[in-house]
Amino acid sequence: MCDEGHVCMNEPNTKSAFVPVSLNNYTTTVIISEKKKRISPEFQNFCRYLRERQNQMPLPDLTIATPFMRPQLVDWLFKTSEYLHLSKKIIFQTLTLVDLYTTRVVVNSDELGLIFVTSLFSCSKFESTGIKVSDVQKLCNNKYRERDIIGMEKSY
C-alpha cells in the first residue's frame, strides 16, 4: 500500500499508440455532437436515405466482369467528378444506376466501362452541370462512340 502523499508505481505504465484510449460517456457524446455540428442536416438526411436504399437494393451480379474492375471504375468516377466539379449526389446516383442495371442484365468487362460512362452522362443531365457526349468521349479517350453511349442510355 502507498501512503497518501506518495505516488505508487506498482504496475509499469505501458500505453501503446495503437491501443485506443477509453473515453467516458460524456466525452464520447461531446465528440459525436461536435462532429454532427460540422455536417449539415441535409447531408445527414441524404446519407441516411442512401443507407436505407442500399439495404433495399439487391446486390449487383458482376460475376462475368473481373472483380477488380468495379473498384477501378469507381475510383475513376470520383476523380472524374472532381475534375468536372460535379456534385457528390451525381456520383451516388451514377453508382445506383450502375448497380440497378447490373442486377438486371449480365455484363462483360468491356460493357462495364460503357455502363459507367453512360450512367455518368445520364445522371449529369439532371443537374445544371450537364455534360456533352463529346466530353464523355474525351474522358474515356474516345474508347466508346457517341452511338454506343446513346444506345446504352436508351437500353436503360
TrEMBL record:
Limits of the Cyclin N-terminal domain: 51-154
Domain of life of the source: Eukaryota
Ranges in a coiled coil: none
Entry-linked InterPro entries: Cyclin, Cyclin-like_sf, Cyclin_N
PANTHER family in alphabetical order: CYCLINS
Protein name, entry field: Cyclin, putative
Lineage summary: Eukaryota, Amoebozoa, Evosea, Archamoebae, Mastigamoebida
